[in-house]
Amino acid sequence: MIQQPSVGYQHIDIDACAEAGIPVANTAGANTVSVAEYTVMAALCLIKRLLPAHRATVSGEWKQMEVGAGDLAGKLWGLVGMGRIGRAVAELLMPFGVRMVYYDPMRLKQDDEKKYRLAFMDLLEIIRSADIISLHCPLTEKTRGLIGQTELSMMKSTALLINVARGEIIDENALAQALKDQKIGGAALDVFAEEPIGKTNPFVGMNSQNLMLTPHIAGATNESKMRIINAAITNIVKVLNGENPDFVVNPE
């Protein structure tokens, strides 16, 4: 067995492993709540304009009325991808009074839509109408470049984009330009096409009031690290004891 101590496994040739009879397992679910909490936090930081408010205040300025903070309540939130993390985000958002829509190639059952207070919507309609869009889909050939110049041009000028999935899902150059031109309201990115980011990354050095960057920390909390370690060790022990591992991503 190959045990990946995280959710992502795009760097492993799982088809080749399957042909060789080698199961590949991840630690699905270990960082779900961590990433969901980050997603909600990122939206609040952007909509409340916390970063520009902080920068102004520490520089000695008092911009109480000029910051332009908004409310999350009443906004339309579009979730792209409704796996474990997408559902966890929806659950956390329930008390905030937001309206929630989602897109996923596999539509949820009606009972689940009711449980999470979600309405299914076509992806392009979410892009056109949502106030906040958060990405929770896996990186595949279909999702690579999912949000590009065309999609960004469709978004509301006040819309916020949050990516906690994979960096390659967004055209980074197109997003950087959209932010510079104030074509959208803001973005929070925890993942990038190339990690660690280098000096050539289009977001490096941007003097932006509507951009929040973090170094892939959404799922790397102290608590999630322990859950990941425990899940990986448990799986390894299972295999050593002749048992079937959990969370196999290339089943026979």
Detailed description of the structure:
By secondary structure, the protein is of the alpha/beta class. It folds into two domains: 2-29 and 221-240, no CATH class; 32-213, NAD(P)-binding Rossmann-like Domain (Rossmann fold, 3-Layer(aba) Sandwich), CATH 3.40.50.720. It is built from nine helices and nine strands. It has helices at residues 14-19, 32-47, 50-58, 84-93, 110-115, 123-129, 149-154, 172-180, 222-240, and strands spanning 2-3, 24-25, 76-80, 99-103, 118-120, 132-135, 160-163, 186-189, 211-213. A seven-stranded parallel β-sheet has the order 5-4-3-6-7-8-9, sandwiched between helices. A two-stranded parallel ribbon has the order 1-2. Helix 2 (32-47) packs across helix 4 (84-93). The longest helix has 19 residues, at 222-240. The chain is globular and about 65 Å long. The two termini are 13 Å apart. 33% of the residues are buried.
Name of the CATH superfamily of the largest domain: NAD(P)-binding Rossmann-like Domain
Structural class: alpha/beta
Unreliable spans are none
Overall tally of domains: 2
CATH topology value of the largest domain: Rossmann fold
Task: Provide a concise account of the structure shown.
This protein has 252 residues and is an alpha/beta fold. Helix content is 35%, strand content 13%.
Helix-strand blueprint:
Blueprint: E1 2-3, H1 14-19, E2 24-25, H2 32-47, H3 50-58, E3 76-80, H4 84-93, E4 99-103, H5 110-115, E5 118-120, H6 123-129, E6 132-135, H7 149-154, E7 160-163, H8 172-180, E8 186-189, E9 211-213, H9 222-240
Parallel strand pairs: 1-2, 3-4, 3-6, 4-5, 6-7, 7-8, 8-9
Helix pairs in contact: 2-4
